[in-house]
Amino acid sequence: MEFQIDTEAILQQIREGKALGGKDGALAPLIKQLTEAALQAEIESHLTQDLVKNRKNGSSSKTMKSEVGSFELDVPRDRAGTFEPQIVKKNQTHMSDQIEQKILSLYALGNSYSQIADHIEEIYGVGFSKATISAVTDKILPMLQEWRVRPLEELYPFIFLDAIHYKVKDEGRYISKAFYTVLGVRTDGKKEILGLYLGESEGAKFWLQVLTDLQNRGVKDILIASVDGLKGFPEAITSVFPNTEVQLCIVHQIRNSLRFIGSINQKQFASELKAVYQAFSKEEAENELDKLEEKWGKKYPIVFQSWRNKWENLSVYFQYPEDIRRVIYTTNIIESVHRQFRTLTKTKGAFPNDDSLLKLLFMGIKNAEKKWTMPIRNWSLTLSQLSIYFEGRLNKALNL
């Protein structure tokens, strides 16, 4: 079979200013010619090898989408119906995955389906409906599921847990749901998102499920967990990882306290509270808390009741040196992930289902992880201090 490309016609179109790609681009007819020639070669090879008496039986037409625009492709048929084209399979409608990859990259940047459709139309001259784009982004879901069950390391020196809330449709109405991010710091000092969990009802039972999931995926030990006052978490972690220290986030505790302080006193109270959480030792912090309560306790008793009730877990960081304290006293380390989440979801008022949100959050995690190429500050010194305070527990992970 002889195949000739009308190069002169293509060059003439380029001379006239026609773009190579995009809608009605000069290369679209060439892609059609090349593909149909390859299909003809395929069917002729098939008929040569077919032991049953068989021959060509015309062709069928279908619309193909490619990076150089859409075109009608004539696909040859055989009488026996045994011909299975390989270059363009029966249900294939795209010439390559380039357009799909472009859709996913635009989606990962927080573009809406309408914006993605406009971009694809402008670049490739190919129209995509919102339903089609949704189907393409649904390909993230198997990747998300694989990521959620992947094996984890045996030991994490630190883990951090924090929640972010979104409106999601559930049984016909939109409700606020909490999605909990679990971030770990590995023994190499680099950050890793261990899991993303939908918390329909926060409590010890929910946290037991989360921690059991981490355990089932290979985690055997956690040195210190820093959390945002999560109800039931300290009790749950004791049953799964009994040797883990739990540090409640000081920053969140301060914010919660200031909510109950009159606006006229907030600045002064916040300044005086520093003497408590910036103290050199736990004993000094307790003395400063006593002084603060003596001054403000009658006016704001609920604030001090909260500090007293949570003091055991709020004060854990005082037993460690500065490098460890700096890491664990707040869950702000997880805020970079949640900022990425907010960037991607800021144009979305609510989500039609859990999956529509989860696949977007997963892309946010992937975006955040690209920046985590270095260990956290002063990691070598921090690790040395941890090996002293948690004697023997780091030996296997560090091959000591």
From TrEMBL:
Keywords: DNA recombination, DNA-binding, Transposable element, Transposition. InterPro entries: Transposase_mutator (IPR001207). One of its GO terms (molecular function) is transposase activity. It comes from the Bacteria. PROSITE patterns: TRANSPOSASE_MUTATOR (PS01007). Pfam families: Transposase_mut. One of its GO terms (biological process) is DNA transposition. Belongs to the transposase mutator family. Required for the transposition of the insertion element. This is Mutator family transposase.
